[in-house]
Amino acid sequence: MAKIIPQATILEKYFVTSTLPTQWCPGCGAGGIGHAVLQAIERMQLDPKKVVLVSGIGCNGHFTRHLRLDDLHVLHGRAPAVATGLKMARPDLEIIVIQGDGDAASIGGNHLIHAARRNIGITTIVSNNYIYGRTGGQYSPTTPKKSISTSSPFGLEDPPFELCNLMVGAGATFVARGTSYHIIQLIDLVERAIKHPGFAFLEVIAPCPTSYGRKNPETGITGPQMLQWQKENSVSIKKAAHMSEESLRGKIVTGILLDRIEPEYSAAYAKVRQRAQKGGLA
Amino acid sequence: MTEISIQRKWCKSCGICVEFCPKKVFTVGELNEPIISTPDACTGCRLCELRCPEFAVIITEVEERSHE
Questions:
Q1: Which residue from A19, A57, A130, A165 lies 20 to 30 Å from A251 (Cα-Cα)?
Q2: Omega of the bond prior to A209 within 30 degrees of 0, cis?
């Protein structure tokens, strides 16, 4: 097992501690993703000046404001689009996009699928807490059927997006899923995603006790209960291969779901630029 | 040996460290806050540090004091 970097080191190197405490509710899943990202960056010994976090609107986007790293806090849903532009202009940077499920799948759904289609070399981490937390608990495109939310007080009938399958279909070359509970695995997944040369997508199942848990007690009401639910309902991809479709219903399959190498967009486009600069159409 | 400290100004008493410590080092206090009850049981696995959503738990490795 790779070494866990002490929290004191992380706090000293990456945090502006005067901005803490965070503005998240007790038991929020966003902090766990923050831990995983910083542990991976520190473990890989990335130059902090070469790492840019692009954050979407929502609870998860507010993680970057506590850090010494460069960040772009952009319009709702537009994080993958801005990250694409940044990668095209500065291919030497390591760009990590942190979004929530509403931001990534609904408002910015188009940007997400087109970033995946182009195989642009960014890492997108989507925290899936099944709800629009910050705006008051409305259902999002990943909210499970029958869920109660402020905009579906009698139960939701919309089937949810399967984000990882969507990304496989859209052409992402690295797709993985982790949970807040399995934090050691999550650090490894973030590291693998950052190392991946093309578009890497990581879905993190995260708890939102305030907006989702309180209304849907079957997945746990408090933060610890929701993590316990994740623990009991997660299946690794290796184990899932031997399980029937019926027994996998409602389970969270964790691990690397897809990992293949395709030409990265900014590198491929640099060649187009070279050809154009030589002049002539041929 | 380890030394555990909790940044009380950052902690929101969510109870995650209490619930998931493999050695049950923490207990819940009167105001739901985590109390470090059995610090000697800590093995330094750092899972509480990593799971704390508020970055409030800090574990430091300290040299074991020799008993005379």
A1: A57
A2: no
The alpha carbon of residue A91 is apart from the nearest alpha carbon of chain B, in Å, by 31
DSSP state of A24: S
Domain definitions of chain A by residue range: 23-278
Domain A23-278, architecture per CATH: 3-Layer(aba) Sandwich (3.40)
Token pair of B61 as six digits:
């490795």
In this structure, chain B runs to a length of 68
Q: Report the gap between the CA of A60 and the closest CA in chain B (Å).
A: 12
Q: How far apart are the two ends of chain A, measured CA to CA in Å?
A: 52
Is A230:A179 a contact under the CB 8 Å cutoff?
yes
What's B2-61's CATH class? Answer: alpha beta
What does the mean pLDDT of chain A come to? 92
- Single-letter amino acid code for the residue at A210: T
The interface predicted TM-score of the complex, written ipTM, equals 0.90
pLDDT of A226 > 90? The answer is yes
- Low pLDDT (below 50) residues in chain B: none
Min mean pLDDT across A48-52, A100-104, B28-32, B64-68 is at B64-68
